[in-house]
Design brief:
- The protein has one domain: Four Helix Bundle (Hemerythrin (Met), subunit A).
- The radius of gyration is 18 Å and the shape is elongated.
- By secondary structure, it is mainly α.
- It has four helices and no strands.
């Protein structure tokens, strides 16, 4: 028997996999620093910039992704519970995922003013989509 994956669940799973990939990239970067003699295992202080600018941007992109995953998951899973499976809801879920990937890639690749502006724009798109999704969930659940 094959299970059917609700269209909005796929972007949620891909979002989680993206978060895992970013974590693995951070771990790999740390291992290279340790094995290359450029850092000690205890030199990666949380919340304090360490390593190259590119490494720190990767670190922050990973943290930002993980911070926002529970919000996205709560909205998508709530939508599933109330039967919110409209094409609009599913499209918004996909846009949130792709927006997160774009935001992360921009964050990793550059710290320029233009990159920061584009990153904020990608984040704003995600937030707008999540708010819209939440409204759809609340409506489908009969809350307004």
């Amino acid at each position: 028997m094959h299970a059917f994956i609700v269209p909005s669940i796929a972007p949620l799973i891909f979002y989680a996999l993206w978060a895992i990939l970013l974590v693995l990239l951070v771990v790999a970067a740390r291992l290279f620093q340790i094995l290359g003699g450029k850092a000690q295992a205890d030199s990666f202080t949380p919340g304090t910039p360490h390593g190259s600018a590119a490494y720190w941007r990767l670190n922050r992109a990973q943290i930002n992704t993980v911070e926002n995953l529970p919000i996205f998951a709560a909205i998508v899973l709530s939508g599933y519970v109330v039967g919110q499976g409209t094409a609009t809801f599913n499209l918004l879920a996909a846009v949130v995922f792709y927006g997160r990937v774009v935001q992360s890639l921009i964050h990793i690749l550059s710290g320029s003013r233009l990159a920061i502006t584009l990153r904020v724009l990608a984040f704003a798109v995600q937030i707008a989509c999540e708010i819209w999704m939440a409204v759809l969930v609340l409506r489908a659940g009969g809350l307004f």
